[in-house]
Design brief:
This protein is mostly beta strands and 273 residues long. 1% of the residues lie in helices and 45% in strands. It has one domain: Porin, CATH 2.40.160. It contains one helix and 16 strands. The longest helix has 4 residues. Keywords: Signal. It comes from Flavobacterium cupriresistens.
Length: 273
């Protein structure tokens, strides 16, 4: 199903040491976007408590993202929706040298949200080289390693460092995932290939994500690589308006597609507020 949004917001929730990390491009010239607005009435699955939804962003003196204000709360499915927007939900980004801790909070004693703690390690150009996602069940804790070439992300390898493995058991295996990234001549992400690996070999599970219909506008998400829902957008020079995800598992194939209709100014740049 295709949903056309007149917004500058993406809900793709996806998801790292680098062999060429010092070649990564410095992003200090990218714009500081402090607010993003969109019409909540167009957002599928969202209980509308405000006709206009605003996300606000704060930065430190080094132009690093420190806070994202605005988020979603899960609600009973009996309402006919799965979530509701709240400006009391916020995400903090705390820096310590090249380490970043990302956590979610709710600015009230009435409701609690899952912190969803994530630990990042950055390189000298403030690009992600490693991501750790802890879990209360230790074997489910994840580690992602990000690899670069000529300043572009080329692969993310996900592993489970605490997962047990019994090499004498022929049915057991080391589980990892590899996602490879491909770009066009304009430095826009065109495709990724995400593969499940058992002992380094594909077991038949694969997800191909394609990013199409790019505009010629600047990309307001270049500084937002640490915001998970904006990660894929942060990798390109411009903005994709069509996303297709095709999942393969042996003979089973399924596809879903999402589209966006952005609003632009007379110079052809996206209007975000």
């Amino acid at each position: 199903m295709k949903h056309l949004f007149t917004i500058l917001f993406i809900g793709i929730l996806f998801f790292s040491c680098s062999s060429n990390e010092d070649d990564a491009t410095d992003t200090n010239s990218d714009p500081l976007v402090k607010q993003i607005k969109f019409d909540g009435a167009t957002n599928t699955g969202l209980a509308i408590n405000s006709q206009e939804i605003n996300f606000n962003f704060e930065y430190d003196n080094s132009k690093r993202l420190t806070k994202k204000v605005g988020g979603y709360l899960a609600i009973s499915s009996n309402t006919g929706f799965d979530r509701i927007f709240s400006n009391k939900v916020y995400t903090s980004f705390v820096y310590s040298n090249n380490k970043v801790t990302v956590e979610n909070f709710y600015d009230s004693d009435v409701y609690a949200v899952a912190k969803g703690t994530i630990y990042y390690t950055l390189n000298s150009a403030n690009l992600i080289v490693e991501k750790e996602v802890p879990n209360s069940i230790a074997i489910n804790s994840k580690k992602l390693v990000y690899k670069y070439s000529d300043g572009k992300l080329t692969e993310v390898v996900t592993s489970y460092p605490n997962m047990t493995y019994y090499p004498d058991d022929e049915t057991d295996f080391i589980l990892t995932f590899s996602e490879k990234f491909y770009y066009d001549a304009k430095n826009n992400l065109t495709k990724t290939e995400y593969t499940e690996l058992h002992n380094g070999k594909s077991d038949g599970r694969k997800i191909v994500r394609t990013f199409e219909e790019y505009d010629t506008s600047y990309n307001p998400f270049k500084r937002m690589q640490l915001v998970e829902e904006y990660f894929y957008r942060s990798l390109s020079k411009n903005n994709f308006r069509k996303y297709t995800e095709t999942s393969y598992y042996h003979d089973d194939v399924s596809t879903k597609e999402t589209g966006w209709k952005f609003v632009y100014d007379t110079q052809g740049n996206i209007i975000v507020n």
